[in-house]
Amino acid sequence: MGEDIFFPSVTMEAIIKPTLGTRNPIYDKYNYGIQLLDNDNVGIWIRADTANAAKHWPSAYVPFPTDGEWHHVVGVVENKKSVRIYLDGELKKTTPAPDPISIAYGAAQKPTIAYTQHLGGIWYAGAIDEVAIFEGALSDADVRRLHTLALAIEYTGKLAVTWGTLKQSMIERN
């Protein structure tokens, strides 16, 4: 991805079927992103512009289902209001948004999908599809509408899923 996303509000969306128990970056811009942690919590994080190190990373994380199925995940940062995580169209957690957001931190870093630049670089493990980034904070109704549209998609046979399946089978053989 070559261009940065407009601040101060942003929405990140993906449909994922991750390998649980591993850190899985979904979207990463170095100073904000959406990811699944190795403790199987999915969420959104953002870098705050503060001297207080304990408040550098406001976030909203919730447990990810362990059913092995596809799930729709949306993270929203609304300037001066909230950091929100949605799972399958439902708002799961809201925390206060940083004020101000640190745009300078990681400004030279390019946004990535299925890869994080933190901790020496980590690739997403599992299947990921329909990643979208929106300039601005989507409403609850917008997220529910996205979830309805996401359910209408048949994942089997899509390029991202087919490639992920091939890659996983190659890893298992070695």
Summarize the structure.
16% of the residues lie in helices and 39% in strands. With 174 residues, the chain is of the alpha+beta class.
Quaternary structure classification: single chain
Residue share in helices?
10-25%
Average predicted local confidence, pLDDT:
82
Spatial strand order of the main sheet: 8-7-6-1-12
CATH level 3 topology = Jelly Rolls
Cα-based radius of gyration, to the nearest Å: 16 Å
* Structural class by SSE content: alpha+beta
Strand proportion, as a percent range, falls in 35-45%
Notes on the protein architecture:
The chain is α+β, with helices and mostly antiparallel strands and 174 residues long. It has helices spanning 140-151, 159-173, and strands at 10-18, 24-28, 32-36, 41-46, 59-63, 71-78, 82-87, 90-96, 112-113, 115-116, 122-123, 126-135. The strands form 3 sheets. The chain has a 5-stranded antiparallel β-sheet with strand order 8-7-6-1-12. It is globular, with a radius of gyration of 16 Å. The mean pLDDT is 82.
